[in-house]
Design brief:
56% of the residues lie in helices and 13% in strands. The protein has a five-stranded antiparallel sheet with strand order 6-5-8-3-9, with helices on one face.
Length: 526
């Protein structure tokens, strides 16, 4: 029966994708395996017969990996460069922790347990849950199945140990954060109509200067509702619609006066509002101010919804395709504003083949050059090359007519397809070797080394973040990004509601992948 999979490898690949995805939906305690379920099902199927692995077309794994890391880079690039200056010390601490971990895994595994470099490199990639790292370990090894064995052992260890660390962090209520004292951006936005009870300057209202509170609509005492363009002074009897987080709006309301007995937004006689999908590629990569909605239509953007998150709009916020803009506009201008922004559902999944092709080609090109240090050859390769290029192009967003960023839904689709194909092929080609090595004394030795490496690695990251004055919430996000697993991020968000968790994840996610790839090549070579 199993010979059928060897004779029909594409059936094997997509059967593994289907069954592994079902396994990924199953909940094990607080987490789901997600895409990693494909790897484990692939290992199971590949272990059934030694002829299955060699029959699988391995070239598709390189394509899948490139799609995955490139789309990750496009999304992570802007956050990485935005956080670079403010989080440079934290990034340096993460690099030091990863290098020390590589030294511990390499030294202990080689000297104490006599485990070869490829197994240790794959295990290091596993406790870092970095799929591109696994690809780098396979490329640097003579037998690609050996790193996959280490990865499959290290991956579940990483998830379990990291969740233990996150749980401990979530229970720590007394955590000094001398350099990160804020409460982060709000997880949810609210809208409130406020009755102003005295003369105030709008710029003095708490949260306005820091873009945590904005006004979308305004009605002067005895006047008609109007859009809140460039508010200056407010007087007693004025009504103003505030948008922001619950706590920020409450503080601004107390400063201005009191909640109005009705919602000004219910009166749509002169001012209208709606959510509009940004699908015009000419507007992608531009700021809210560059849309020109104020000068053209007298309209104002109050919120931007990207994926599952709502953000307060401000003039310098850079937009991307598939953003949903909450626009407040004069009644009767809705059709014109909608036409200007696009609002075509059919275009949110479209991908520019030109920008995607150019970006991937450039990514593969910068992955070619190598540096030889003794017996070790370092190169970005097909895993890190497209990642670095994706980060750079995602940060640039557009170059002339070329829009590098992808619509959110298209990005996530390409990323998922690429990752599933890569993991399915890796599992199938490594399954038989996993069967021979994992359930043995050798496997127990590898588990011991990787458990030690995981505890050392995560502890160093947490202590480094605390020493640098980061908040408990940001440290949870930093650890999630340091490990690089979305399931861990989801668990952290379930234990605390704070935007600094996601911000911390974005700070270290892409950087961690790059550093791990270099360390992995060193482990194999040395």
């Amino acid at each position: 029966m199993w010979q059928f999979f060897a004779d029909q490898p594409w059936v094997a690949v997509f059967s593994v994708v289907a069954l592994g995805s079902l396994l990924g939906l199953c909940r094990f305690g607080p987490v789901k395996l997600g895409a990693a379920g494909v790897l484990f099902v692939g290992l199971l199927v590949g272990a059934l017969d030694k002829n299955i692995g060699p029959a699988v077309p391995t070239g598709v794994s390189a394509l899948g990996l490139a799609l995955y890391v490139y789309t990750v880079g496009l999304e992570a690039g802007p956050a990485f460069f935005r956080e670079l200056r403010g989080q440079l010390a934290v990034m340096a601490a993460a690099i030091v922790a990863l290098v020390i971990t590589a030294g511990v895994v390499g030294f202990v595994g080689r000297r104490w347990f006599d485990i070869s470099g490829p197994y240790l490199a794959g295990g290091y990639a596993g406790i870092g849950t970095t799929t591109p790292g696994l690809a780098a370990a396979q490329a640097a090894s003579e037998n690609p199945a050996e790193p996959a064995v280490g990865y499959a052992i290290g991956y579940p260890l990483a998830v379990v140990v990291t969740i233990l660390f996150i749980a401990v962090l979530a229970g720590r209520r007394h955590w000094k954060a001398r350099r990160d004292p804020g409460s982060g951006l709000p997880a949810e936005l609210v809208t409130r109509t406020v009755n102003v009870t005295g003369d105030v300057r709008w710029g003095d209202v708490p949260g306005v200067a820091t873009h945590r509170v904005l006004a979308s609509e305004y009605r002067p005492a005895g006047g008609e509702p109007r859009i809140a363009h460039a508010l200056d002074a407010l007087g007693a009897g004025d009504l103003v619609v505030l948008v922001g987080g619950e706590n920020d709006v409450r503080e601004a309301t107390a400063y201005l006066g009191e909640l109005a007995p009705f919602d000004l937004l219910d009166d749509r006689s002169t001012v209208d509002y709606r959510r509009i999908l940004l699908t015009d590629p000419d507007l992608a990569g531009r700021t809210v101010a560059e849309l020109g909605l104020d000068s053209r239509y007298g309209a104002l953007v109050s919120r931007v919804r990207r994926g599952d998150f709502d953000m307060l709009a401000h003039d310098d916020l850079v937009l991307q395709l598939d953003d949903r803009l909450r626009v407040v506009m004069p009644r009767g201008r809705a059709d014109a504003v909608t036409s200007h922004l696009g609002d075509k559902e059919s275009r949110v999944s479209e991908v520019s083949a030109v920008s995607l092709g150019v970006g991937l080609a450039l990514g593969f090109l910068i992955g070619i050059p190598s540096l030889t240090l003794g017996g070790t050859t370092l190169a970005l390769g097909a895993g890190a090359g497209p990642l670095v290029m994706g980060m750079l192009l995602g940060w640039r967003r557009r170059t002339g007519p070329l829009v590098w960023t992808l619509p959110t839904r298209a990005n996530l689709t390409l990323r998922q397809v690429g990752l599933l194909l890569f993991l399915a092929v890796v599992g199938l080609t490594s399954g038989y070797s996993f069967r021979e090595n994992a359930f043995s004394v050798f496997g127990l030795k590898l588990v011991a080394v990787l458990t030690l490496g995981a505890f050392v690695s995560y502890l160093l990251m947490v202590l480094g973040a605390k020493w640098l004055g980061q908040s408990r919430e940001r440290t949870m996000g930093l650890l999630s990004g340091y490990v690089g697993n979305p399931a861990i991020l989801a668990y952290a968000n379930g234990r605390a509601t704070d935007s600094r968790i996601n911000s911390g994840y974005s700070t270290l996610f892409a950087l961690g992948i790059l550093v791990k790839i270099v360390c992995i090549q060193l482990i194999v070579g040395l």
